[in-house]
Amino acid sequence: MDTGRLARVSPERLPGWIAGFGERHGGFEAHPTPDALTLAGMDGARAVVAVPFLPWAWWPAPLDALLEHVRREREVGVLLVRKGGYAVGRFVGVRLVESKVDSTYVQGRTKAGGWSQQRFARRRDNQSAKAYAETADVAARLLAPHAADLDALVGGGDRAAVTAVLTDPRLGVLRPLLQPRIHPVPDPRLRVLEAFPAQFRAVEITLNALA
Fold first, then answer.
1. pLDDT (tens digit per residue) in 146-189
2. What is the number of domains present in the chain?
3. 132-136, long-range: CB within 8 Å, 24+ apart, which pairs?
């Protein structure tokens, strides 16, 4: 199967997208798996819908179950971390109910070698560690107390940075909630955080060449 095409569709647009797929390909059969729903068109086209926020229950009507699952209002923690700053927030549906955003400074790379390079590397590591510790403090205050109510934790920015922040022992209750995909974001700002639901709620669909 050609997996060269990837579509990202909002939960609100997904019913229309699926109806259009059926119209274009002479109808389809729906085949569920624990993490996806494959739409097999009558003309051989296939669309694999990756189900977000697993697990999901597809019995007895997989298509209806998918649409209900993606539209469900969830309480989601968000952790965006990049060299230029961090944003921590808690969403109910698309509404940001609590947040803290700040910029951090981590020195950029240098071309110097020898001892200068080593001093720079130590300084940069110390700056990164301080920035991650500050981010962990905020996450421990804003997200950890709500861990029992959160449906998921969604990360954005730099995967290594998100992982580093979550090594803080206070955030152990959040680690199992982290979703596999770390979303690309620019330097975290409030406007980036406020717009983030459009990314983490989107449903990813992989299509073959006929789709």
1. 999 999 999 999 999 999 999 999 999 999 999 999 999 999 99
2. 2
3. 132/81, 132/161, 132/164, 132/165, 133/168, 134/86, 134/102, 134/104, 135/79, 135/81, 135/86, 135/88, 135/104, 135/165, 136/165, 136/166, 136/168, 136/170, 136/171
In DSSP notation, 79-110 reads EEEETTEEEEEEEETTEEEEEEEEE-------
Tokens found for residue 102: 């700040």
45-90 pLDDT tens trace: 999 999 999 999 999 999 999 999 999 999 999 999 998 799 999 9
Same domain, 66 and 104: no
How many beta carbons lie within 10 A of that of residue 154, not counting itself? 26
DSSP bridge pairs for 105: none
- Are 85 and 160 contained in the same domain? yes
Range of the structural domain that residue 30 is part of: 5-72+202-207
Closest CA to 106 of 139, 131, 88: 131
